[in-house]
Amino acid sequence: MNVYFAPAAYEADVLDVKEELEALPEVAEVEYVSREQALEDFRGRHENDQLTLQALDELDENPLGAVLNIRAKETSQYESIATFLEESDALSQDGDALIDNVNYFQNKVTIDRLTDIINASERIGFAVTLVLTILSVLITFNTIRLAIYTSRDEIKVMRLWVQAMRMCEVLLSSKASWRVLLRQS
């Protein structure tokens, strides 16, 4: 969002507004463009348009005012920043308007669309993440089931081996018990 100041606005007043904006929690960054820099940028954008440059040279002074380029932390916060700029008492100088134009209102539809796109992409990203997480859990469980299924013959042999070992223990312990009983009698 850009705030265009009147050409008669004093640089100190513009910098005061910049400081007020930087103090807002919604504002991520405020860039100051001086009147001279704005004129230089304008000349650079219109370097191939000789008629515009000649008209600009005919003027005695710089017709452009200073500009503040404002970047909000979230796109949904631009409206509250624009409202602050409209309602602020510090934005008038000697009864004249300090701010010439705030371009939020010209770009409101585009900013709203951008906000909607960002919100939709966040929801889609969350849904895709959720689906991929569920799929990875299912794949993991199926891999474990498949490993157990393919090892079923080995598991059967292991069970038989354990049963055989137990049987041997029982037989050996019963044989030892009989020997003890026979010796005692």
Describe this structure in words.
The chain has six helices and six strands; from the N terminus they run E-H-E-H-H-E-H-E-E-E-H-H. The protein is of the alpha+beta class. The chain folds into two domains: 2-102, Alpha-Beta Plaits; 151-184. It has a four-stranded antiparallel sheet. A hairpin with a 2-residue loop joins strand 4 and strand 5 (96-97). The longest helix is centred in the last third of the chain and has 47 residues, at 104-150. The radius of gyration is 40 Å and the shape is rod-shaped.
Outline the secondary-structure elements.
Elements: E1 2-5, H1 11-23, E2 27-33, H2 35-45, H3 50-58, E3 67-72, H4 78-87, E4 92-93, E5 96-97, E6 99-102, H5 104-150, H6 152-184
Antiparallel strand pairs: 1-3, 1-6, 2-3, 4-5
Write a concise keyword list for the protein shown above:
185 residues; alpha+beta; Alpha-Beta Plaits; two-stranded antiparallel sheet; 6 strands
Q: Which percent range describes the beta-strand content?
A: 5-15%
> What would the average pLDDT be, to the nearest integer?
85
The CATH C-level name of the largest domain is: Alpha Beta
Strand order of the largest sheet: 2-3-1-6
Helix content: 55-70%
Low-confidence stretches: none
Task: Describe the main β-sheet briefly.
Answer: 4 strands, antiparallel
Task: Please tell me what the overall shape is.
Answer: rod-shaped
Supply the helix-strand structural class: alpha+beta
Pattern of helices and strands = EHEHHEHEEEHH
Question: Helical region count?
Answer: 6
Distance between the termini: 107 Å
What number of structural domains do the residues give? 2
Q: What would CATH call the architecture of the largest domain?
A: 2-Layer Sandwich
